[in-house]
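Design a sequence for this backbone.
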């Protein structure tokens, strides 16, 4: 007598995105040998990373490490000098339209159409993605409510605070339910309650099969929120893997300082003492 074959648990990504085939173990984002120089200055110097599908991936590094430049090249916003970027099997630079359909992006220092109201801006983002008006209207209302922007829906984006602007840009990145979310500093300027709401939204998104990449300087947040992390400095990857692998028994912050170095004792600022 043969025992019945064990039932395989459904792939959450396949459930959430039934129209999109998911190749087993295919990374959500695969970066190989990415490099970029501005004039004589090398900003990114041969970065390779695999972001597993369904992961919550943190990208950390000191100021000027090359995080924004890497993410801009990975999302089709900045052309690399060298290297390849593939999103769910689609090459970002040879098939940009297909690749961009799979992604939601919150770029650094995002410039928005700020003479639109918040509601108009997110609606515009949905229509631009080819969605029908009725679906867009429903999702816009859901997103504004979830991000605590419903009462400011009719305010021009130019009159939003920095944190509100970040949130409306995030709503615009989420409206088409992308498979991969790439968020450059999503919590910068955002108040703690809104940050907790955003974390809940992102965790639910990952639980249902989506993949999130966030860049951040807040090590504690990355340690608590992410399951994978890469440390970048000087345009190189210094360490990458699960958060536990990278922190190797220390706090992520201590490990980060150890890897990156650069601590000094405020030497030369003795004049700043008040007594
Ligand atoms: N458009 C540009 N022109 C010239 N240099 C640039 C440009 N963009 C970035 N750089 C340089 O490339 C390097 C990497 O910058 P990048 O913005 O990618 O770093 P980052 O890790 O995102 O930094 P931060 O944490 O401060 O935001 C820096 O030395 C920066 O001065």
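Sequence:
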């Amino acid at each position: 007598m043969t025992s019945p074959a064990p039932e395989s648990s459904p792939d959450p990504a396949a459930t959430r995105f039934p129209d999109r085939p998911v190749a087993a173990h295919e990374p959500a984002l695969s970066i190989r040998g990415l490099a970029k120089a501005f004039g004589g200055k090398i900003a990114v110097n041969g970065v390779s990373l695999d972001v597993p599908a369904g992961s919550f991936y943190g990208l950390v590094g000191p100021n000027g490490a090359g995080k924004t430049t890497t993410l801009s090249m990975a999302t089709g916003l900045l052309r690399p000098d060298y290297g390849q970027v593939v999103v769910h099997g689609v090459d970002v630079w040879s098939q940009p339209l297909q690749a961009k359909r799979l992604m939601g992006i919150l770029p650094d220092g995002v410039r928005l159409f700020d003479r639109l109201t918040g509601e108009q801006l997110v609606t515009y983002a949905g229509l631009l993605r080819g969605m029908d008006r009725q679906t867009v209207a429903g999702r816009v209302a859901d997103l504004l409510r979830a991000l605590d922007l419903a009462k400011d829906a009719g305010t021009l984006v130019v009159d939003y605070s920095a944190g509100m602007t970040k949130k409306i840009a995030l709503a615009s990145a989420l409206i088409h339910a992308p498979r991969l979310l790439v968020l450059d500093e999503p919590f910068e300027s955002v108040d703690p309650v809104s940050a907790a709401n955003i974390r809940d939204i992102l965790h639910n998104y990952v639980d249902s099969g989506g993949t999130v990449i966030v860049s951040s300087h807040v090590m504690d947040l990355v340690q608590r929120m992410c399951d994978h992390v890469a440390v970048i400095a000087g345009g190189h990857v210094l360490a990458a893997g699960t958060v536990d692998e990278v922190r190797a028994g220390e706090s992520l912050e201590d490990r980060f300082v150890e890897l990156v170095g650069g601590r000094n004792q405020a030497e030369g600022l003795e004049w700043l003492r008040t007594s």
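Residues 110-177 form one domain.
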